[in-house]
Design goal:
heterodimer, A: about 270 residues, alpha/beta, Rossmann fold, 8-stranded mixed sheet, 10 helices, 8 strands, about 35% helix, globular, B: about 80 residues, alpha+beta, Translation Initiation Factor IF3, 2 helices
Chain lengths: ~270, ~80
């Protein structure tokens, strides 16, 4: 088994003390590779917590640069980072928290022609994308590659998340067949979002990744967890795998990935 | 009449406070097979009160606690099946 230095034992002591994580779970974290899609509102807390937790390799993909309007919720980016590539800004903070973590940055759009190749190298994916086409793309690609992932989305005061174990639990498309029409959901710059709910949701996603890797607890599968921060009511909606799901059902009709056109919102 | 207990690993946690003494105990126990025995030396007070209790909660068995001449405690922990 991996041996920990004295410093590592102290750094990870609060994990090692947990019976469900322990020395073995912490060692698994050190061997794990997790990809974060989007260095925005959800990706920011997820990246910070994964780095802090000692996940061996964290990949982060985002084509954008830091804008002042991001700073209200994307807590991995600082005022000094305005104009810097988000993946570079995020990598710097992750390294500062935990120099032991290897960070891989991808400054590009995730698209049908690159996603499978990118995600294939990871054990778990956190979807913090800010638009529906990418969320469906992540779902379909993860199902095709058999890679577990956490879906997450936020808007205004609302958040929703589910964990998908492809072939074993309901996928995003079992639940939501197709992206909403481009004009059905307000663009995020119009709708707004309470900054702190990005932390609430992205942190749940990080916890799901850590649970999956260490084997602790039960994943948030076959359920959609939603909350409304106005009342702080949480709801857990049971879900089931659908035989007729176009991507993970018995006779999939989606067997190849394609890019969908939709205006990108800058919410997540 | 005493039966000699075979000790498979030893850890000296003199001067090591809570919770790092438990972290060290867990690291040592993780390297053992179920049924094997760890001798850990713990300070008097909170350490000897807390570490054996935590180990028991995690399914290990405390075989013996013995205070040493310097006031510290020698505790024998047998690794449990689920530890």
């Amino acid at each position: 088994m991996k041996t920990f230095s004295q410093q590592q034992l102290e750094r990870y002591s609060r994990h090692i003390l947990l019976q469900d994580v322990g020395v073995e779970g912490q060692a698994r974290l050190g061997e794990a590779r997790v990809l974060i899609v989007g260095a925005g509102g959800l990706g920011a807390p997820a990246a910070l917590y994964l780095a802090a937790a000692g996940v061996g390799t964290v990949g982060i993909i985002d084509n954008d640069h830091v804008d002042i309007s991001n700073l209200q919720r994307q807590v991995i980016h600082f005022t000094k980072d305005i104009g810097v590539a988000k993946v570079d800004s995020a990598a710097e903070k992750m390294q500062a928290i935990n120099p032991e973590v290897s960070v891989r940055t991808y400054r590009k759009f995730l698209a049908a022609d690159n996603i499978r190749e990118i995600i294939r190298d990871y054990h778990f994916v956190i979807d913090g994308a800010d638009n529906f086409p990418t969320k469906f793309l992540v779902n379909d690609a993860c199902v095709m590659e058999g890679i577990p992932f956490s879906h997450g989305g936020i808007l205004r005061f609302d958040g929703q998340t589910m964990t998908v174990l492809p072939g074993r639990s309901a996928c995003y498309r079992c639940t939501f067949r197709t992206p909403p029409p481009p004009d059905a959901v307000p663009t995020c710059s119009q709708a707004g979002v309470l900054g702190a709910i990005a932390g609430m949701l992205g942190t749940i996603q990080a916890a799901e990744a850590l649970k999956y890797i260490t084997g602790a607890g039960e994943p948030l599968t076959d359920a959609l967890l939603t909350f409304d921060a106005r009342t702080m009511n949480f709801r857990r909606v049971p879900l089931r795998r659908q035989d007729d799901c176009p991507v993970c059902g018995r006779k999939p009709t989606i067997t190849e990935l394609e890019d969908l056109e939709q205006a990108v919102c800058s919410l997540a | 009449m005493t039966t000699e207990t075979r000790i498979d690993a030893r850890k000296n946690c003199r001067g090591v406070g809570c919770p790092m003494n438990l972290v060290h105990a867990k690291v040592e126990l993780a390297a053992l097979a179920p049924g094997q025995v760890l001798e850990i030396i713990l300070d008097d007070g909170a350490p000897v009160n807390n570490v054996p209790a935590s180990a028991e909660k995690e399914g290990h068995t405390i075989l013996r606690r013995q205070q040493l001449e310097d006031g510290c405690w020698s505790v024998l922990i047998r690794k449990g099946e689920r530890g």
